[in-house]
TrEMBL record:
Localization: Cytoplasm
Gene3D superfamilies recorded: 3.10.20.590, HUPs (3.40.50.620), Isoleucyl-tRNA Synthetase, Domain 1 (1.10.730.10), Nucleoside Triphosphate Pyrophosphohydrolase (3.90.79.10), Valyl/Leucyl/Isoleucyl-tRNA synthetase, editing domain (3.90.740.10)
Pfam families: Anticodon_1 (PF08264), NUDIX (PF00293), tRNA-synt_1 (PF00133), tRNA-synt_1_2 (PF13603), tRNA-synt_1g (PF09334)
UniProt-listed PROSITE patterns: NUDIX, NUDIX_BOX
Key words of the record: Aminoacyl-tRNA synthetase, ATP-binding, Cytoplasm, Hydrolase, Ligase, Nucleotide-binding, Protein biosynthesis
EC numbers on record: 6.1.1.4
Database matches in InterPro entries: aa-tRNA-synth_Ia (IPR002300), Leu-tRNA-ligase (IPR002302), Leu_tRNA-synth_edit (IPR025709), M/V/L/I-tRNA-synth_anticd-bd (IPR013155), Methionyl/Leucyl_tRNA_Synth (IPR015413), NUDIX_hydrolase-like_dom_sf (IPR015797), NUDIX_hydrolase_CS (IPR020084), NUDIX_hydrolase_dom (IPR000086)
Protein name (Swiss-Prot/TrEMBL): Leucine--tRNA ligase
Length: 957
RNA sequence: GCCCGAGUGGCGGAAUUGGUUUACGCGCACGACUCAAAAUCGUGUGACCGCAAGGUCGUGUGGGUUCGACUCCCACCUCGGGCACCA
C-alpha cells in the first residue's frame, strides 16, 4: 500500500510551524562557543512569482545538509529571504499596469507558501526582504559609509547602456555584447554614474582566494575575471612637442620592435593634438564611427582591423630614438591600461595583422628558441624549406617514418659560403628532385636544439625558414638522385594535414610563421635591440624597462563597479545635490530615503530615472547650507542589495544598526554557501568586495577576518527530460508542484538528491521515470514499517540467526558511516544509494525496531515528513529531527573476511573468501592449491607472486 | 585562441594513496500473482563467440610506465563552462 503523502506532509508541516522547531536562537557567547553554531546559506530567490525546479534543487537539497548538521548537535542557522528589488517587477508594472510593490509582495506571499511545501527547515522568523525600507535603510547607510571613505564615487564614464531596459549595466551583466536580462544589444554611452572602487581591492580579492578552501574551478573563474597581468608602463615622446604618450605593455622586452603606436578613439590626447593633425577630418570621421559602434559590432567585425594614421605628428621610440607613426584604431580600448599601445607587429598577432593591412614596418627583435638544450652541442646553420604547389595549395613534405620524426619539410645544413636560398634549393633538389622554385618569404632565425640520431650528435642549429612556390612548368614527378631514397617517401599535404602530421617543433613553427602568418609571441633571444642583443628576452623585460625609465606595473581586467540604475524599483541612492556644496550624503537621521510612490514607472530614453518625475520627493534642503537642493534620482543595482543580506540574517530585526557585532560573531563567516555557478563572477565577487570594504571601515568585527564565506559550493543544473535546458518555448518545463502533488515533497527532494553529484558543475536531465524509483523506495520503507498495514514494531516473523544478526550489524554500521560522510561531501546521490542498499538488506533479514529507528534517523534529512511520521508511530514524542545523528562502531564497519582476487598476469582467474588477516604465505598456498589456478597455469612455473593485503594475489608467469 | 572541468552499459550515475569496471536507480526481458491489466514481488541484464564449461574484447582515441591503468605520464579528439582585439 502506498503511503498518503498529502496527509502526512501537511500534518508535519503544520506541526513544525506550530512548535517552531526550526527557529534558531542566538546563544550567549559564554556558554555557547562559535564552534557549535553553524551557518548554512543558500542564495535567496528573486520573487518572480512561481517556484521552479531550479529553486527546489537550490533549497531542498542543501536542506538535507542543514538537517544533518542539526542532528549532529549544531545550532544551525538556515535562513531564507527574497532578493526583491529589480527590473522584472517594474516591467510587469508597465506591461500589466500593476504597482511594482504590489506585484513583488504578492509574489512573495505566493512563493513563501510554495517554499514551505518543500518541508525545508528554514527559519522563517529571520526572513529578509531587500525591498523593505527596514532593510534598504541599511543598504543606503553602508553605501554612505563607503561614500565617506571615497570608495563610492561619481564619474563621467563610458558605460554599457541597454537601450531596451534603458539603464546602465555592469560588465558582469553583459553576455556576448547583449544585455543579460533582455538580450538587447548593449551600447556605449557617456554618463555620470555612481561607482564603487572595486579595483582598489583587485589584488586582495585575488590573493584572498588562496586562503579559501573553495573548489579550484570557482577560484580560477574569479582569477580570470580579475585578470591580473604584469608588465610595464613606458612613455613615448611626441616629436617636437611636450606631449607624451604613456603605454602599458606586457612585453617591454620587445620595445625595439615597436614600429608604430595606436591610440584608442576615445583617447583624450587626440583633441590636444588637433591643430597639428593634417588629416583631421578623416581622423574625426573615424573616431565618430568607432564611438557609435556597439560592443557587439566591434566583435562582429570579425576582428578585421580598421584605423587612421594621425598625419603630421610622430612619436619617438625611447629605446632606439626612431620616429614612428601614430594611429587611431578601435582595437585599442580606453578602458584598459592607458588607452594607448606601442605596436610590435613582429611579436603580437593583432599588431601584425594591422601592420600587414596598412603596410607598416615590422621588425623582429626576439628570435624563437625551440627544443631542449643538451650537453656538447655542435653548432650549425641550416634551413627549413616549405615548398608549396600554388595550383593545389598543398605542401611538400617528406615522411621519414615514425622513428625519425614522421613528416617534415625539407631541411638541411648550409655548406660553407652558401647563402640560405642556395642551400635550400640544393637540399630540395637532393631530397625531392624539384628545382624550379620561386622564393616567396623568409622567416627570422630560429634556434633549435635537437639530437641528430643518424649521426648521434646533439645539435644547436640556427635555422632560417623559407617559403617556396613551385613554378608551374615543373610537372614531372620528381626523381630522386639520392641513394637515400629508400628511406623516405614524398607526400603532398593540405594545410590541415600539415597541422595534423608535422609534429616537429621547429618545422611546425616555420609553417605557422610563413604560411599561417602567425606572429611569434613567445620568448627567445634578443636581436636588433642594440646592446641587449643576445640576452634572454624574459630577462630583458626588466632591463629594458629600466633602460628607458619605464615603470613595472600591474593591470587588471576588472573595472570599477557601476552601481547606478536609471530605474524605479530599487533602493534610492541616498545623495543630495546642492548647487553650492555639490554631492552630499543624505543625513543619517533621514534614512531610509524612501522610494516615493509614483504613477508612471516608464524608463526614459534620456537616461534619467523615473524618480526624476517625483517632484515633491525630489526637492530637499541642502543638509549643509539649507538652500534648495535635489535628490539623486538613480537607484542602486540589485547586486548591492544582495552583497550583505547574509549579515542581516544574523540580526534581522535590529532597528539601531545593520547587525549587532555580537550577533555577527555568533554566525560569521558563513560556514557553507551553496549557490549557482552563474554567480561566480557577479554576486560572489561583489559580496566579497563589499564585505572587505565593510571590514576596512570597521563594520565587521576584526576577529572574523575579511572573507565572508568559508566554503562555497556551486550546484549543477536540472535539464528537461530531453536533456535540453528547460524553457517554455521548448515545452520541456517540469512543474515541481505537479510532481509534489503526485508523489509528495519527500519524493521530489530525494529524487533531486539522487539525480547526480550536487557540488559539481554538471547538468542532469529530469527523468520522469526515475522519480518513480524513489517513490517506490519510500513506499517500501513504509511497507517495511507496517508489515500488516496496521501496527508497527514487528519487523520479522522468525528470529534471525546469529550470523545474520552479525552481518546486519555490519551493514548498518557501514551505512551510518557512508551516509554521514557522503552528506558532508554533498554526495547526496551515493548517500541515497546506501540507504537503498540497507533497505534491501533489511527486507531480506528483517530489523529490530531499534535498528529500524537508526535507519529512520539516517533517512530523516532526506525524507523529513515520512521519517517523522514513522518515528512518531514508533511511539516517540519528540521530533526525529533533533535526535542525535547515529554513531557507528568502528569495529563493526570492518569485515572479518574478504574476497581474495586471484590474477594470472593481471587477469582475474579466480576468487574466494579468506580471513582479512590472512598471511602472504597462506594466501599463496591456498591460491596454488586451487583447481582453476592449476588449470590456468598449464604447468608453467610462477616467476613472481604479488600479494596485496586485503585485495589480491597476482601470479606472474 | 587562452584558462578550467568532464568523457565509464540503452539512460542518470558508482568505483581512483594504481588492485574484482559498471554499486544504486531507471529502462528492458522473462517469471509469479490476476479472468485480464495496472500495481507489487522474484530472476536476469556491458559486447562478441560458445549447448555449456569457458574464452576474447571493453572506461573518448593513439602511445608509454607497471606484475597490474577508468586511475599515473605524453600526444590528440569531443562535449560543457569561463575569458577573449585586455596590449
Amino acid at each position: 500500500m502506498p503511503y498518503d503523502h498529502k496527509k502526512i506532509e501537511k500534518k508535519w508541516q503544520k506541526e513544525w510551524e506550530k512548535s517552531k522547531i526550526y527557529e534558531t536562537n542566538d546563544q550567549p557567547k559564554a556558554d555557547w562557543p562559535r564552534a557549535r553554531n553553524f551557518y548554512v546559506l543558500v542564495e535567496f530567490p528573486y520573487p518572480s512569482g512561481n517556484l521552479h525546479t531550479g529553486h527546489w534543487y537550490a533549497f531542498s537539497v542543501p536542506d538535507i545538509f542543514a538537517r544533518k548538521k542539526r542532528m549532529e548537535g549544531k545550532n544551525v542557522l538556515f535562513p531564507i529571504g527574497f532578493d526583491a528589488f529589480g527590473l522584472p517587477a517594474e516591467n510587469a508594472a508597465i506591461k500589466r499596469g500593476l504597482n511594482p510593490k504590489k506585484w513583488t509582495y504578492g509574489n512573495i506571499d505566493y512563493m513563501r507558501k510554495q517554499i514551505k511545501s518543500m518541508g525545508a527547515s528554514f527559519d522563517w522568523s529571520r526572513e529578509v526582504i531587500t525591498s523593505d525600507p527596514e532593510y534598504y535603510k541599511w543598504t543606503q547607510w553602508i553605501f554612505l559609509q563607503f561614500f565617506k571613505k571615497g570608495l563610492a564615487y561619481q564619474a563621467e564614464t563610458s558605460v554599457n547602456w541597454c537601450p531596451k531596459d534603458k539603464t546602465v549595466l555592469a560588465n558582469e551583466q553583459i553576455v556576448g555584447g547583449c544585455c543579460e536580462r533582455c538580450g538587447a544589444e548593449v551600447e556605449q554611452k557617456q554618463m555620470k554614474q555612481w561607482m564603487l572602487k572595486i579595483t582598489n581591492y583587485a589584488d586582495r580579492l585575488l590573493f584572498g582566494l588562496d586562503k579559501l578552501n573553495w573548489k579550484e574551478e570557482i577560484k580560477e573563474a574569479q582569477r580570470n575575471w580579475i585578470g591580473k597581468s604584469e608588465g610595464a608602463e613606458i612613455e613615448f615622446r611626441i616629436k617636437n612637442l611636450e606631449f607624451k604618450i604613456k603605454v602599458f605593455t606586457t612585453r617591454p622586452d620587445t620595445l625595439f620592435g615597436a614600429t608604430y603606436m595606436v591610440l584608442a578613439p576615445e583617447h583624450p590626447l587626440i583633441s590636444n593634438l588637433k591643430p597639428l593633425i593634417s588629416n583631421l577630418k578623416e581622423v574625426e570621421r573615424y573616431i565618430d564611427v568607432a564611438k557609435k559602434k556597439t560592443q557587439l559590432q566591434r566583435q562582429k567585425a570579425e576582428k578585421e582591423k580598421t584605423g587612421v594614421e594621425l598625419k603630421g605628428i610622430k612619436a619617438v621610440n625611447p629605446a632606439n630614438k626612431e620616429e614612428i607613426p601614430i594611429w587611431v584604431a578601435d582595437y585599442v580600448f580606453m578602458g584598459y591600461g592607458t588607452g594607448a599601445i606601442m605596436a610590435v607587429p613582429a611579436h603580437d598577432q593583432r599588431d601584425f595583422e594591422f601592420a600587414k593591412k596598412f603596410g607598416l614596418q615590422t621588425r623582429t627583435v626576439v628570435e624563437p628558441v625551440t627544443g631542449e638544450l643538451r650537453e656538447n652541442e655542435e653548432f650549425r646553420k641550416s634551413i627549413v624549406a616549405v615548398v608549396e604547389d600554388s595550383k593545389t595549395g598543398k605542401f611538400l613534405s617528406i615522411n621519414w617514418g615514425p622513428k625519425l620524426g614522421g613528416n617534415l619539410f625539407v631541411g638541411g645544413g648550409i655548406d660553407g659560403a652558401e647563402n640560405y636560398e642556395a642551400a635550400a634549393c640544393r637540399e630540395i633538389q637532393e631530397e625531392t628532385g624539384y628545382k624550379n622554385l620561386k622564393l616567396v618569404s623568409v622567416s627570422e632565425k630560429i634556434h633549435h636544439h635537437y639530437v641528430a640520431f643518424s649521426k648521434n650528435v646533439n645539435r644547436n642549429i640556427n635555422a632560417t625558414g623559407l617559403h617556396f612556390q613551385l613554378l608551374n612548368n615543373e610537372k614531372t614527378p620528381p626523381r630522386l638522385e639520392n641513394t637515400e631514397k629508400e628511406k623516405f617517401s614524398l607526400e603532398w599535404l593540405s594545410k590541415t594535414e600539415v597541422l595534423d602530421k608535422v609534429k616537429d617543433q621547429l618545422h611546425s613553427l616555420v609553417f605557422r610563421r610563413l604560411i599561417l602568418g602567425e606572429a611569434y609571441a613567445g620568448s627567445g633571444i634578443m636581436v636588433n635591440s642594440g646592446k641587449f642583443d643576445g640576452m634572454d628576452s624574459e630577462k630583458a623585460k626588466k632591463t629594458i624597462t629600466e633602460f628607458v625609465g619605464g615603470e613595472i606595473k600591474t593591470q587588471y581586467r576588472l573595472r570599477d563597479w557601476v552601481v547606478s540604475r536609471q530605474r524605479y524599483w530599487g533602493a534610492p541612492i541616498p545623495i543630495i545635490y546642492c548647487l553650492k556644496d555639490g554631492a552630499l550624503a543624505a543625513p543619517e537621521k533621514d534614512l531610509p530615503v524612501l522610494l516615493p510612490e509614483i504613477k508612471d514607472y516608464k524608463p526614459r530614453s534620456d537616461g534619467k530615472s523615473p524618480l526624476a518625475k517625483a517632484e515633491k520627493w525630489l526637492k530637499v534642503k541642502c543638509p549643509k547650507c539649507g538652500s534648495v537642493a535635489e535628490r539623486e534620482t538613480d537607484t542602486l543595482d540589485t547586486f548591492v542589495d544582495s552583497s550583505w543580506y547574509f549579515l542581516r540574517y544574523c540580526d534581522p530585526k535590529n532597528e539601531k544598526e545593520f547587525a549587532q557585532k555580537r550577533k555577527m560573531e555568533n554566525w560569521m563567516p558563513v560556514d557553507l554557501y551553496s549557490g549557482g555557478a552563474e554567480h561566480t563572477t557577479m554576486h560572489l565577487l561583489y559580496s566579497r568586495f563589499w564585505y572587505e570594504a565593510m571590514f576596512d571601515s570597521g563594520l565587521i568585527p576584526k576577529e572574523l577576518g575579511d572573507e565572508p564565506y568559508k566554503d562555497r559550493r556551486n550546484r549543477g543544473i536540472i535539464l528537461g527530460p530531453d536533456g535540453q535546458k528547460m524553457s517554455k518555448s521548448k515545452g520541456n518545463v517540469i512543474d515541481p508542484d505537479e510532481y509534489v502533488a503526485k508523489f509528495g515533497a519527500d519524493t521530489v527532494r530525494m529524487y533531486l538528491a539522487f539525480i547526480g553529484p550536487y557540488n559539481e558543475a554538471g547538468s542532469y536531465p529530469w527523468n520522469p521515470q526515475g522519480i518513480l524509483g524513489i517513490r517506490r523506495f519510500l513506499d517500501r520503507v513504509w511497507k517495511f514499517a507496517s508489515p500488516r498495514g496496521k501496527t508497527l514494531g514487528v519487523f520479522r516473523d522468525s528470529t534471525p540467526s546469529v550470523e545474520e544478526r552479525g552481518d546486519f550489524a555490519r551493514a548498518l554500521n557501514k551505512t551510518i558511516k557512508k551516509v554521514g560522510e557522503d552528506i558532508e561531501e554533498f554526495h547526496f546521490n551515493t548517500a541515497v544509494s546506501a540507504l537503498m542498499v540497507l533497505l534491501n538488506e533489511m527486507e531480506k533479514v528483517g530489523a529490530s525496531s531499534e535498528n529500524f529507528s537508526v535507519f529512520l534517523k539516517l533517512l530523516a534529512p532526506f525524507a523529513p515528513h515520512l521519517a517523522e511520521e514513522l518515528w512518531s508511530r514508533l511511539g516517540n514524542k519528540a521530533s526525529i529531527h533533533f535526535e542525535p545523528w547515529p554513531k557507528y562502531d568502528p569495529k563493526l564497519v570492518e569485515e572479518n573476511t574478504f574476497e581474495l582476487i586471484i590474477q594470472i598476469n593481471g587477469k582475474v582467474r579466480d576468487k574466494f573468501e579468506v580471513p582479512v588477516n590472512i598471511s602472504q604465505s597462506e594466501a599463496e598456498r591456498l591460491t596454488l592449491a586451487r583447481e582453476k589456478v592449476k588449470l590456468a597455469l598449464e604447468n608453467r612455473k610462477p616467476r613472481k607472486i604479488i600479494f596485496v593485503p586485503r585485495r589480491l594475489v597476482n601470479i606472474v608467469v
